[in-house]
Amino acid sequence: MKQIVRRKFLMTAGAAAAASVIPPWITTASAAEFVYKVGTDLPGTHPLNIRLQEASNAIKKETEGRMEIRVFPNNQLGGDPAMFTQLRNGALEFFTLSGANVLSSLVPKTAISGVGFAFKNYEQLYRVMDGDLGKLLRSHISNAGLAVMEKMWDNGFRQITTNTKPIMNPDDLKGFKIRVPIGKLWISLFETLGAAPSGIAFNEVYSALQTKVVDGQENALAVTSVAKLYEVQKYCSLTNHMWDGFWMLGNRAAWDRLPPKIQEIVARNFDASALKERKDVADLNAMLQKTLEEKGMIFNTVEPEPFREKLRKNGFYAGWKREFGDEEWDLLEKVTGKLV
Ligand code: X2X
């Protein structure tokens, strides 16, 4: 008897545990009229996802439950190329995607935010991306059939990590096998610097580093930290070689289905959260060197000029100016100063 009671208890406990791991889209019957997903490629603990969840809560409240946006972090819906396909065919309603990443396969000009060694600091960067160039890029994205919010979300200035040696100057990159995201600009930047880059989606980066398919990667410290890349990387060279950030993209038909009042609430909350996320990420990147050193990483600073000089000498800036066009390039240089 006693045993039967116990078994019953165990079964109940087991059922409860199983229920808690069933994904939300199966268990939660939602009363919301619009239930949309947003996919991201960053781990759930990254500020981008925390702020997205906050925006989603605010949107639900302000729409009095009519609109529910479910956050799917950490490539749960697939890597960037898969999520981008889903976004375009309507299986996914919102997606945060870097302008230099897969988005540039559809809208090549969005990669301009990632031009190597272009921005000296965040102040310059946001003057460009919240200004006329950002506006022009949004019109290109919109002409390509996607919805896009006004404010970009920060990924950060990118730094090179390796498991073999510190990168001090361009010569250290000679033949160096480095993972980069899937985008022509990244390949071009590292090839021009003499490295051997491979485009790999982020959900495969940890294992690519662990199995030594590549010897290094480059990302903002926040990503190296939340994705635990420090477990498989030893050195971190503070190259700040490019800035990277995410556009909040929407599937156009899904966006157009929303009543104007709900569109306004969604856009306003996404943009407000983006501004908060920018501050979170900048603060985090500024404090993480110490944390990562405690985990065993060895840091070095880098003089950017020899890298910029090598890029300039090898036609990197002139080539990309032709690719992006004079109008875009002039809007960039108006703030950064001459790059070519
Ligand atoms: O893929 C990357 O390295 C990441 C996470 O930084 C981007 O989304 C561009």
Could you characterize what this model shows?
This protein is of the alpha/beta class and 340 residues long. The chain has one domain: 3-Layer(aba) Sandwich (D-Maltodextrin-Binding Protein, domain 2), CATH 3.40.190.170. The chain contains 15 helices and twelve strands. The protein has helices at residues 2-21, 24-27, 47-62, 80-89, 103-106, 122-129, 132-143, 184-192, 205-210, 221-226, 252-257, 260-294, 305-313, 316-324, 326-336; strands spanning 34-39, 67-72, 94-98, 146-148, 153-157, 159-162, 177-180, 196-199, 216-219, 235-238, 243-251, 298-301. Strands 1, 2, 3, 4, 5 and 11 form a six-stranded mixed sheet that branches. A six-stranded mixed sheet has the order 8-7-9-6-10-12, sandwiched between helices. Helix 3 (47-62) packs antiparallel against helix 12 (260-294). The radius of gyration is 22 Å and the shape is globular. The chain starts with a helix and ends with a helix. The protein binds (2S)-2-hydroxy-2-methyl-3-oxobutanoic acid.
